[in-house]
Amino acid sequence: MTHDIVVCARGWIGTRFHHQGRIKKTDTHKGGVDCLGLLAGVAAELSLRGPDGNLLAAADEINYSHQSDAARLQKKLAQFLIPIDAAAIAPGDIVLLCVDYSPQHLAIVSNMPDGFGIIHAYAPSRAVVEHRLDNWWSKRIEAAYRIF
């Protein structure tokens, strides 16, 4: 399943960034998605379920600001995913990253030839991108989660 999550997430690469967006790019449309929307989209495509057996995509919400409520986000993530030690991450896991000094950004861990990568809808890149989980990003991991 973790391989499927990474493959599916890579299918979103190039989708433009759009706050609260939930639309994957197509051959005729650039789509639009943010970091939570990427997770929701992958969960929907793969019919992923949380520890309670319910579809993860059903837990999606779009009523949040650009500066998310970090405590609420962490509570929701722990409710629908399995918290793990950040040192134990593997491809397909989800990381919560500190951006602007607040844990508010989500990414899917991927595998790259030279180690781990992350796939995320990244506003400065204006799109879903994949790059190495280098030291700069690793230092920003606030929490990590596993699906199922």
Quick structural overview:
It is built from four helices and eight strands, in the order αββααβββββαβ. The protein has helices at 2-10, 35-46, 70-80, 135-138; strands at residues 22-23, 32-33, 82-84, 94-99, 102-112, 115-122, 127-132, 141-146.
Assembly form of the protein: single chain
SSE pattern, N- to C-terminal: HEEHHEEEEEHE
Task: Label the structural class.
Answer: alpha+beta
Report the strand count.
8
| Total DSSP helices | 4
Summarize the biggest pleated sheet: 6 strands, antiparallel
User: Distance N terminus to C terminus?
Assistant: 9 Å
* Shape call: globular
Name the poorly predicted regions.
none
Classify the helix fraction into a percent range. Answer: 10-25%
Give the overall average pLDDT.
Answer: 93
How much strand?
Answer: 25-35%
Lateral strand order in the biggest sheet: 3-8-4-5-6-7
Rounded radius of gyration (Å): 14 Å
In words, what does this structure look like?
- By secondary structure, this protein is of the alpha+beta class.
- It has helices at about 1-10, 35-45, 70-80, 135-140, and strands spanning about 20-25, 30-35, 80-85, 95-100, 100-110, 115-120, 125-130, 140-145.
- Helix content is about 25%, strand content about 30%.
- The strands form 2 sheets. Strands 3-8-4-5-6-7 form a 6-stranded antiparallel sheet. Strands 1-2 form a two-stranded antiparallel sheet.
